[in-house]
């Protein structure tokens, strides 16, 4: 979004397309399901796709990762033809009967089975089948039909998780998988502890929760706990056993255990001795005893602790603390590694003169007949005369020479040439050493600043729901304590889901919470009680707050380089965050041209990434300042930063200026200027940008400019006053036209030599929720 011209107002909100965590998990599990085999057949790939399409026909693209999983697993060429044809036939059947599939739910399992049997029959044209192959194909067809029915219910949990619970699922499974990996292949009295724990989780969750979460635990714990060589077997066993156990849970503990044993039997019956035996008889007996002895209340409490739908964020906080600790340790390690740049590059035991004397002695004089006379009997005189020759600024062979060389030295010319070359080499070394020291100092500073950035990132922590935390803090000041706030983007606007303890009859919802949001939002809000404990008897109160209207921002942007330059050093960015905040930012890189542009673009890119990662505005600016010190160390590079932050629910705006010129707010015919003076980004360690808060209303316009615009205004008086008159004279409400007209009017009366010029205009407008 950097340095981009903008569009008409209704198309201003840039919606980013990204793959959700849920879809990534489906793609991964699809690959695994396609790869999972039973006795050299692959009966789960097409049933998996069928079960997904039953829930969402737009997920047909999962055919590709599932087929890749099957393709990478098949070792037999004939089987490759069989499954390749089956996938092609299935795709054609889906395209042919796509309308009927939505109406006739039985049709998709039938098409899946038909694809497998048709692919198998066609593959028999290449290789004549045996009776065993025909029987195996029939069994695979029946198994695929049953698998579609099982998986269509087993995968329901991917579509019923509330917003944010996929993240909790990942955190939970990471912790569980870490414990299981720590246990490893530990065996105690013939019992595999890891297999026993996973089986117990499957049985307990089947009893307390149901098919969806059992399948989820079976798939995800298998992915984490077992190596790739055992993964297909683990996935098959726990999925089948868990699903059968949950189907029979209505008959109580006996039904769950019977279902688990049926799944265990089916697994071993179809796979036989080729499979991996995850549970021996001792393990089965322990699971039976534990299930009967543990009270149902304890099982339910344990399952609630492991539940995928619990709102508590404790596990995530633990995970964040672990990550933060590791980041701080990494920063300390980097800081220690950076000290390497302070160590001397070469051994400094010998100075250049000593080194030269040794080389003359060993390389030139060693084979001379007078070697012993010079280096043994007259050692001091020899050293003294070499020193005189070495330190002389200029030596003439036919002029004044040290006594030794005049009287008896037969290798004078060779020694002279060596000393001359050695002196030149040492002078060059001094220059190079100075350059290396300078580069080392710069590198050390870069590493030190980078380590500082890492520490700041870790200490501040990434909070993906930062705005929700701010709301909790504001509610707390009003005496309203809530456990969690979830902000959901529901297409036309945002809704706020609040979870708190019951009111106990004091009607906190109506008396305190509703008035708070009435005042916070532009035109008030409506409240819906999703679950009231006074009526339902549950432990938590759940409220949905829907603002009656929201603000949006349409943006216009123009940017031209300095006269004679190919690149503008000014850059801009604008984006909306998940929590309903809008950011507009300008940056002016020092100087002009490509170097200035790169610096300003880098400033805005890091800023945008920090905000979208969940950092608050103040923390993002501090981290950005340290990051730009790393980027610009060793030179005089810096950038100004001009930010406008708008809360789209309340209209509150904050203007942050670091080395930037004034910004302006136009409301109807009145224009207000917002001035700031502070150091640019990346100049020094501490930075205190100017921060101004204002309340914006629909149809307000925010005008942000770089110093090149203000400097280009030709005026004998106050240039800012003349610029305000320019803004007042423009009547259009289209932000792009507004920015272009400002630029045109400024250029009409500009000075002869102008700088880079960038203008960013934001129109605040109202949208109904």
From TrEMBL:
Ranges for domain PPM-type phosphatase: 552-764
GO MF annotation terms: protein serine/threonine phosphatase activity
TM stretches of this protein: 21-42, 79-97, 106-128, 134-161, 182-208, 214-247, 254-272
Keyword match Plastid: no
A Pfam cross-reference name: SpoIIE_N
Keyword Disulfide bond belongs to the record: no
Keywords: Hydrolase, Membrane, Transmembrane, Transmembrane helix
The protein's enzyme class: hydrolase
Gene3D superfamilies: PPM-type phosphatase domain (3.60.40.10)
Known EC number: 3.1.3.16
The name this protein goes by in its record: Stage II sporulation protein E
This protein's encoding gene: spoIIE
């Amino acid at each position: 979004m950097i340095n981009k011209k903008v569009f008409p107002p209704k198309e201003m909100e840039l919606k980013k397309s990204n793959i959700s965590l849920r879809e990534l998990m489906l793609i991964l599990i699809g690959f695994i399901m396609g790869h999972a085999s039973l006795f050299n057949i692959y009966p789960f790939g097409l049933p998996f796709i069928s079960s997904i399409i039953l829930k969402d026909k737009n997920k047909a693209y999962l055919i590709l990762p599932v087929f890749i999983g099957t393709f990478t697993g098949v070792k037999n060429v004939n089987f490759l033809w069989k499954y390749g044809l089956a996938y092609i036939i299935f795709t054609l059947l889906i395209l042919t009967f796509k309308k009927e599939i939505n109406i006739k739910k039985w049709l998709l399992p039938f098409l899946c089975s038909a694809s497998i049997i048709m692919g198998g029959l066609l593959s028999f044209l290449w290789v004549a089948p045996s009776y065993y192959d025909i029987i195996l194909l029939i069994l695979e067809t029946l198994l695929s039909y049953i698998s579609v029915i099982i998986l269509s219910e087993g995968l329901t949990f991917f579509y019923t998780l509330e917003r944010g619970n996929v993240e909790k699922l990942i955190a939970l499974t990471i912790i569980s998988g870490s414990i299981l990996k720590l246990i490893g292949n530990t065996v105690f009295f013939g019992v595999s502890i890891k297999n026993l724990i996973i089986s117990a989780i499957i049985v307990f969750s089947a009893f307390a929760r149901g098919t969806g979460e059992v399948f989820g635990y079976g798939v995800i714990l298998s992915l984490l706990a077992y190596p790739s060589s055992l993964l297909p077997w683990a996935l098959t066993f726990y999925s089948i056993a868990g699903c059968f156990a949950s189907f029979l849970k209505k008959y109580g503990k006996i039904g769950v255990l019977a279902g688990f044993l049926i799944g265990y039997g089916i697994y071993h019956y179809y796979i036989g001795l080729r499979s991996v035996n995850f549970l021996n008889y001792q393990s089965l007996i322990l699971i039976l005893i534990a299930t009967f002895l543990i009270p149902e209340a304890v099982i339910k409490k344990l399952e609630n602790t492991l539940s995928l739908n619990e709102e508590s964020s404790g596990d995530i906080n633990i995970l964040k603390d672990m990550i933060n600790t590791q980041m701080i340790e990494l920063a300390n390690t980097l800081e220690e590694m950076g000290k390497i740049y302070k160590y001397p590059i070469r051994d400094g035991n010998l100075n250049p003169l000593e080194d030269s004397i040794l080389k003359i002695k060993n390389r030139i004089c060693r084979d001379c007949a007078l070697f012993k006379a010079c280096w043994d009997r007259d050692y001091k005189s020899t050293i003294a005369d070499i020193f005189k020759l070495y330190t002389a600024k200029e030596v003439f062979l036919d002029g004044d020479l040290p006594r030794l060389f005049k009287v008896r030295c037969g290798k004078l010319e060779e020694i002279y040439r060596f000393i001359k070359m050695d002196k030149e080499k040492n002078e060059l070394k001094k220059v190079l050493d100075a350059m290396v020291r300078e580069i080392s100092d710069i590198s050390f500073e870069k590493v030190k600043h980078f380590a500082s950035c890492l520490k700041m990132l870790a200490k501040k922590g990434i909070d993906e729901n930062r705005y929700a935390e701010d709301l909790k803090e504001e509610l707390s000041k009003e005496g309203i304590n809530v456990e969690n706030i979830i902000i959901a983007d529901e297409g036309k606007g945002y809704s706020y889901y609040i979870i708190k303890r019951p009111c106990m009859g004091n009607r906190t919802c109506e008396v305190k919470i509703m008035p708070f949001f009435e005042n916070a939002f532009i035109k008030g809000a409506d409240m819906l009680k999703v679950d009231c404990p006074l009526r339902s008897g549950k432990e938590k109160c759940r409220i949905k707050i829907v603002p009656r209207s929201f603000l949006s921002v349409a943006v216009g942007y123009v940017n031209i380089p300095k006269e004679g330059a190919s690149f503008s050093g000014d850059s801009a960015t604008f984006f909306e965050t998940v929590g309903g905040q809008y950011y507009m930012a300008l940056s002016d890189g020092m100087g002009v041209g490509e170097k200035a542009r790169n610096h300003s673009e880098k400033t805005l890119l890091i800023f945008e990434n920090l905000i979208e990662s969940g950092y608050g505005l103040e923390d993002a600016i501090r981290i950005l300042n340290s990051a730009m010190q790393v980027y610009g160390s060793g030179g005089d590079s810096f950038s100004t930063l001009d930010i406008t932050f708008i809360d789209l629910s309340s209209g509150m705006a904050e203007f942050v200026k670091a080395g930037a010129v004034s910004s302006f707010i136009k409301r109807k015919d009145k224009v207000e200027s917002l001035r700031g003076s502070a150091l640019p980004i990346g100049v020094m360690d501490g930075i205190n940008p100017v921060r101004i808060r204002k309340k914006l209303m629909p149809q307000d316009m925010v005008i942000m400019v770089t110093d090149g615009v203000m400097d280009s205004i030709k005026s004998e008086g106050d240039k800012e006053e003349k610029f305000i008159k320019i803004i007042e004279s423009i009547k259009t409400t289209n932000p792009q036209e507004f920015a272009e007209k400002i630029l045109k009017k400024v250029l009409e009366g500009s000075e002869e030599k102008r700088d880079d010029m960038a203008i960013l205009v934001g129109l605040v407008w109202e949208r109904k929720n």
